[in-house]
Fold DUF202 domain-containing protein.
Amino acid sequence: MSDHPFDPGLQPERTRLAWQRTAISIAVGALVYARIEAGVLGLASWACAVIGAVAGIGIGYWSKQRYRYTHRCLNTGRVALPDGLLPLVVAVVVFAAGLLAVVAALLRATGDNPPI
């Protein structure tokens, strides 16, 4: 297998970098949001931050594996490219983060304290 890029425009490499930025954004965003909402959600915000950071690290690792698989497929002429599971996982993580933000906003608006 060749280590040279398949595409002279480096599209797979640019996609890999975009996935890296997404993973870093998820991990750092979870930590920053937990710091901001610690007063409202309490300890639950830090638990969610750890989950978000682990999700970001996992997405980063998974995207690296996905790139290697795509690179191998393109250089060997195979047609089987990666499935859409990684984008689905990212969508679910972002949706869950959005739900958490809504819950925190509602708790802040009502003045209720979370059970944790």
In short: The chain has a mean pLDDT of 83. Helices lie at 11-41, 43-76, 85-110.
